[in-house]
Amino acid sequence: MKKKIELEQDDFISEEMALELSDMLSVALHFAGIKENKIEAAMDAYLSALDEFDDEEEYGREAMIKIIENLRQTHKELFI
Predict the structure, then answer these.
(1) What's the superkingdom here (predicted)?
(2) Cβ neighbours of residue 64 under 8 Å, at least 6 residues apart?
(3) Do 78 and 71 meet the contact criterion of CB atoms below 8 Å apart?
């Protein structure tokens, strides 16, 4: 029973963390100049770009900036 409770807590923490990361991405996109009504579309575009990200490269702050800069070129309609 204890193991089941621990698993449920881990699932909750993972779900909670995923929601927080999603919120953080939407804030980053907002400050990058995404139109408020285009945040969801920008998040989808970001995640699609992330799928194409080279797994050999390190994913960190610089990679995130590079993806957002690429969105500026490929999805101009999302930006103010």
Answers:
(1) Bacteria
(2) 28
(3) yes
**What residues does 34 pair with on adjacent strands?**
79
Please give the backbone phi and psi of residue 34, each rounded to the nearest 5 degrees, phi first: -70, 140
Ramachandran category for residue 60: left, alpha or beta (phi over 0 → left; psi -120 to 50 → alpha):
beta
What's the predicted TM-score (pTM) here? 0.78
Three-state SS for 79? Answer: strand
> What three-state secondary structure class fits 48?
helix
Q: Tens digits of per-residue pLDDT, 30-49?
A: 999 999 999 999 999 999 99
The helix/strand/coil state of 78 is helix
> Is 59 in contact with 53 (CB distance < 8 Å)?
yes
